[in-house]
Amino acid sequence: MSNRTMASLMRRAKVDPMDCYQCGKCAAGCPMANSMDLNSRQIMHCTQLGEAAYNKLISSEAIWLCTGCNVCHERCPHDVDIPSVIEQARYDAIEKGKIRRKSKIFNDIFLTNLKLTGKSQEAFLALIYNMVSLDIFQDMNSVPHMLRHKLVSVLPEFIKNPKEVSNTMEKSKEWGKAEK
Amino acid sequence: MMKYSFFPGCSMGSTAKCYRLSLEYVCRQIGMDLYEIDGWNCCGATSAHVMNEVMGLALPALSLAKAEKNFPHLDIATGCAACYSRLKTAAHHCKNDAGVRYQVEKTIGMPYEAKREVLNFMDIFGTEEAMTAMQEKIRRPLKGLKVACYYGCLNVRPAAITGAPDRENPMTMENIISLSGADCIDWSFKTECCGGAHQNDATTETRPLVDVIIRNAVANGAQCIVTACPLCNMNLEMRQKEYERIFGTPRIPVFAFTELIAIAMGAHWNEIALDAHYTDASKIIAEAIRAGKEADVK
């Protein structure tokens, strides 16, 4: 999209950057703030700086580490919808190919599973993710327990009509294109 | 009338086996009917709404539209916090924004009017009718069992969508668990985030979140934690050996909240697959049942 700017991002997020008075209550409650290159207060500061800070915001790792827990928005004394800003920043990052490596791997595998079967395939998601991301042994010590107690299936499971889901996913993508 | 359309979600068929079995057990006991949505699909959490805004609304709306078509007079029940959040968000936007509704209906190729509510099982079991029905079926109270009720994020937040009356210190789960005779502890981390799906793709950043949740529950005297979400349950429970090794985190059994109710109603160990848990809970449960019987005799 041509108008990927801070102004358009904030319009889509339905947030006025000047509503934030930088008190930092959001970052104080954020479970991920310690690991973020930009914490929630700094993200709002970027939006106030406008176009100059646009690239900094959408290239940050923070927007991919946000768990979407909504603590920031709930505790904000001025009701600033920070998760909405982060969500729109992610869409812009995707558009510009700036998506965090591991997030891209995880989401791509998740959505491919969904497209093929209509369901999330927990076991396959974890297994393929480990191979592609090279975190081969992540969570693998739980596998014997899961198999013994039939907590995961060794074969993928399908919903009644996976085609409906893949059609919905394809059509969803067309809306984005139409906006351009 | 306790009848609901039921959106099970993907985990209910796999990793949340104990949750599903106990949920169905409790429903059978109190005469609550769940009608599984015919041809339901994954709500897309967590990837769909992260990658594409319309997809994040259309995927849950597809299942909701089917529920509306098959059971137009029933509210929709779901047991997973992420499914609940996505379904409820889609319903909320379709109900309040004609533009979004038009976009969603075009995308899923079905009408969807968002007439019925999306509810989680705390809403459902927390009603007076359900609480009374459950109370009548309690056969062996779990006396003295110290329970930490963990809500996580999405069952409560964002309050504008969930309508949760108390976003910092919700008490619905405590009210329900109290029926089992167990004691619910007061603690600080009941609505903290478990990391959700980021426990897969941002492990070093999210592992400490669970460490502090478990530590706070144990520090306040909990013998077990109960959850109302398959993913919260898995995140709190599955990697406890790893947490013990890395952070020295204490180990503690983690249940779905329906499991404790089912046990107190007299469910057999195998009937609700209690041995499928990662941390052995047989000792604390047996002790609570024994204490319950002794109190009964007195």
Helix content of chain B: 40-55%
Extended strand count of chain A:
0
**SS summary, helix count of chain B:** 15
The first-level CATH class of the largest domain in chain A is given as Mainly Alpha
Form type of chain A: globular
Question: How many strands, what sense, and barrel or not for the largest sheet of chain B?
Answer: 4 strands, parallel
- The CATH topology of the largest domain in chain B, please? Rossmann fold
Q: What is the distance, rounded to the nearest whole angstrom, between the alpha carbons of the first and last residues of chain B?
A: 37 Å
Known CATH architecture of the largest domain in chain A:
Orthogonal Bundle
Low-confidence stretches of chain B: none
Give the tags.
heterodimer; A: 180 residues; mainly alpha; Fumarate Reductase Iron-sulfur Protein, Chain B, domain 2; 2 domains; globular; B: 298 residues; alpha/beta; Glutathione S-transferase Yfyf (Class Pi), Chain A, domain 2; Rossmann fold; four-stranded parallel β-sheet; 15 helices; 9% strand
